[in-house]
Design goal:
Length: 264
């Protein structure tokens, strides 16, 4: 991570970069974090305290680590929004460009699909189905667009609707395109999720769509999480960013999956 050389950088942006460093390295000592961000150790300590209060890191003597994690660890929505935010914005813009006016869509939950939704605000006559309440309630779409919310039980900390009610609606629909998110993506293991809670919903989304687009930034690739969603033979197109490893790109090409790299 390149130094930012600004002690007075906006605190939110500085903490975002701090969290990304700890995420990439699994831990960070105060002196190295101060050097990487080119800020004082006192500033790092204050930022770590804020991140700890938000539940995003755990403080240790002299530094910080990620919270206790495993393949079942799932980050809360505020943390997801902070990670790879520029990449997600680029993916959102690219994905939305693949949508035609008048189409029917399902948008999976998550911070990447939220960026897709933001870029659909000027499309006409869309029908958007989602179980993500942020996508449903915080974006202003064109008046000609219809937004259908699945219903279900609200999942605390993620603002999504899950359970039998959500699943029943998805069994009854057919759409042109679905945009799927992921916690982890591996060429061999396929698309996986940190928990089982949303897995059945994601599988039903795949079944309901004529075309399934996986929208995931480069940090998701090369990893596997606890619960398998699907194999790559159920994915029609991948949208990611230019930070993806070349070997993974080659693997996708060998699988015959069209891949779009969003420009940063």
């Amino acid at each position: 991570m390149a130094p930012i050389n600004q002690e007075a950088t906006l605190p939110a942006e500085r903490r975002k970069r701090l969290l990304e460093y700890i995420q990439q390295n699994r831990s960070g000592r105060i002196e190295e974090l101060a050097a990487v961000l080119d800020v004082s150790e006192a500033t790092v300590r204050r930022d770590l305290s804020v991140l700890e209060t938000e539940g995003l890191i755990s403080r240790t003597y002299g530094g910080a680590i990620l919270p206790e994690s495993s393949t079942a660890f799932e980050r809360l929505y505020p943390e997801k929004r902070l990670l790879c935010s520029e990449e997600k914005r680029a993916i959102g813009l690219e994905a939305a460009s693949l949508v035609n006016d008048g189409e029917t869509l399902i948008l999976d939950s998550g911070s990447t699909t939220f960026e897709i939704a933001r870029n659909l605000s000027n499309h006409k006559n869309l029908t958007i189905i989602t179980y993500d309440l942020f996508i449903a309630s915080t974006i202003t779409y064109d008046p000609s667009t219809t937004v259908i919310v699945t219903g279900g039980s609200r999942r605390e900390g993620f603002n999504v609707l899950v359970g039998p009610i959500a699943e029943d609606l998805l069994r009854q629909v057919r759409v042109n395109k679905a945009f799927l998110g992921a916690d982890a993506v591996d060429i061999v293991q396929g698309i996986t999720n940190a928990t089982f809670i949303e897995v059945q919903i994601k599988r039903l989304i795949i079944e309901a769509a004529s075309q399934v687009y996986l929208a995931a930034d480069h940090s998701k690739f090369g990893h596997a999480a606890l619960a398998k969603v699907c194999a790559f033979d159920q994915i029609d197109h991948v949208i990611t960013d230019s930070g993806i490893d070349e070997s993974i790109l080659q693997g996708l090409q060998q699988l015959g999956i069209p891949t779009t790299l969003a420009a940063l």
